[in-house]
Amino acid sequence: MKILMVCLGNICRSPLAHGIMEHLVQQKGLNWEIDSAGTGGWHVGQPPDRRSIGIAKKYGLDISLQTCRKFDVLDFEKFDQILVMDHNNLLDVRAMARNEAEKNKISLFMKDAIVPDPYYEDDQFDPVYQMIEKRCKEFLYEYTSSI
Ligand code: 4NP
Question: What is the CATH architecture assignment of 2-144?
Fold first, then answer.
C-alpha cells in the first residue's frame, strides 16, 4: 500500500500524518510506503513547522528530517490512496485528477471530518496530533484487522 498524506502547506498536518503512519506501519512490519505533500508551494524544501516537530518529539517521533514538497499530478500514479486533511485540500486535489480512477484514490483522511489547520493556533498542535494518531490506528485496523 502506498499512501500520500496531503494538506495545504505540508509543514503542519500532513508531516504529522506521514510520520505517525510511517512509524505505525514499521512497528507492524508492513511494507507500506508513506509520504506527504502540500497543495501550496510556499514552504517547499523546508522541514516541517517547528511546532509539528515539537509535538511529534513530545510523543517520541522524529519528523525533523522530512522535506516539504508540493503535490504533483504524477502522485496519482505513484500512490494507491491520497488522504487529504480538509475540504479545501479535497477540492484542490480533485481538480488535478485526470480521470475517475484518479479521483477515486482521493478521500478525507478523517473519513467524515476534517483535521483543522493549526497553523495560526499554537495550542491546537497537541489535539491535532492526537486526532491524527487515532485515525492512523483506525486506518491500520481497517486494513489489517490486527491492532
Ligand atoms: P498545513 O498548515 O496545511 O497543516 O501544513 C499550513 C501551513 C502553512 C500555511 C498554511 C497552512 N501557509 O499559509 O503558509
Answer: 3-Layer(aba) Sandwich (3.40)
